[in-house]
């Protein structure tokens, strides 16, 4: 499987250093970034090709892995899907724009393309998906990150945001894609709180779900990526596992 990557930052670097062609026949061949130097550096490191012409790349890929920004998804996903090429998308917040969501869903359906959204920096999506249509009453996400991760210069704990996921992704497009992932898993605009906390050095995501099934809570205490403290290691690792899982005969979990 030939893979092209959009965005050559923290996540792409981790993925490119962990996936080798001998693994499940996955070859990460093309590297595209609006910053050409970043694309060239990662392509050189990974033995791939830095992409200057995005459209030309689409003639030689089976899957495009986006790890750039919600804006890149809005700009480039339609082009990829129109060619019937599957995608993995990390910047899931883009799909909280309902007009865009409907547009890409239709393009994907018309062209028999599939969009895969990794669980990313959180755990618990399996349970949320399972109970979504079976009396799920309440889902909340509380995210706690350091001032460095949230790009704030703050000495005391502060609530930066309290509201719906659709608004959270607008105000923090590079920090709270996980809220969009949960919302899409249960088909509702979930409640989100974002806290900046000078006493943590992890990216912490606490999910609570309540309903007819009972209740569960998951807490993910992520190590941030060295190259980008906004982003958790788990986000990149989940994409690696998703890529490898396409080849599995027996799938475990949802
Ligand atoms: N789903 C999830 O759980 C998570 C999602 N993310 C999201 O994944 C994405 C990538 O994260 P990182 O690798 O940490 O980011 P990063 O900032 O380290 O790298 C992003 C790269 O994409 C490039 N880029 C941005 N917009 C572009 C565009 N329109 N066209 C081409 N290149 C573009 C940048 O130049 C940069 O090199 C971000 O949107 C981030 O918010 C991050 C963590 C968790
Ligand atoms: O990596 C994380 O902890 C979460 C994150 O940045 C996002 O959801 O955009």
UniProtKB/TrEMBL annotation:
Keywords: NAD, NADP, Oxidoreductase, Pyridine nucleotide biosynthesis. Its EC number is 1.4.1.21. It catalyses: L-aspartate + NADP(+) + H2O = oxaloacetate + NH4(+) + NADPH + H(+); L-aspartate + NAD(+) + H2O = oxaloacetate + NH4(+) + NADH + H(+). NAD(+) binds at residues 121, 177. Residues 7-118 form the Aspartate/homoserine dehydrogenase NAD-binding domain. GO terms for biological process: NAD+ biosynthetic process. Residues 156-240 form the Aspartate dehydrogenase domain. It is an enzyme of class 1 (oxidoreductase). Pathway: Cofactor biosynthesis; NAD(+) biosynthesis; iminoaspartate from L-aspartate (dehydrogenase route): step 1/1. One of its GO terms (molecular function) is aspartate dehydrogenase [NAD(P)+] activity. The active site is at 205. HAMAP family: NadX (MF_01265). Specifically catalyzes the NAD or NADP-dependent dehydrogenation of L-aspartate to iminoaspartate. Belongs to the L-aspartate dehydrogenase family. The iminoaspartate product is unstable in aqueous solution and can decompose to oxaloacetate and ammonia. This is L-aspartate dehydrogenase. It comes from Methanobrevibacter millerae. The gene is nadX.
């Amino acid at each position: 499987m030939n893979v092209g990557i959009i965005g050559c930052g923290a996540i792409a670097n981790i993925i490119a250093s962990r996936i080798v062609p001998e693994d499940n026949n996955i070859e990460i061949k093309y590297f595209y970034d609006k910053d050409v130097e970043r694309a060239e550096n990662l392509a050189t490191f990974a033995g791939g090709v830095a992409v200057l012409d995005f459209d030309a790349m689409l003639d030689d890929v089976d899957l495009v892995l986006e790890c750039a920004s919600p804006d890149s998804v809005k700009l480039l996903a339609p082009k990829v899907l129109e060619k019937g090429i599957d995608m993995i998308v990390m910047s899931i917040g883009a799909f909280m724009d309902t007009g865009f969501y409907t547009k890409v869903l239709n393009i994907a359906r018309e062209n028999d393309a599939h969009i895969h959204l990794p669980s990313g920096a959180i755990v618990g999506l399996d349970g949320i998906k399972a109970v979504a249509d079976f009396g799920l009453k309440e889902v909340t996400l509380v995210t706690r990150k350091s001032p460095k991760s949230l790009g704030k210069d703050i000495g005391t704990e502060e609530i930066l945001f309290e509201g719906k996921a659709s608004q959270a992704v607008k105000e923090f497009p590079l920090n709270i894609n996980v809220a969009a992932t949960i919302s899409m898993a249960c088909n509702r605009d979930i409640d989100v709180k974002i806290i900046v906390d000078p006493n943590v050095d992890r990216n912490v995501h606490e999910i609570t779900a309540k309903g007819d099934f009972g209740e569960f809570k998951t807490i993910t205490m992520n190590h941030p990526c060295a190259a980008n403290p906004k982003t958790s290691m788990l986000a990149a690792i989940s994409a690696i596992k998703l890529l490898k899982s396409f080849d599995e005969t027996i799938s475990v979990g949802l």
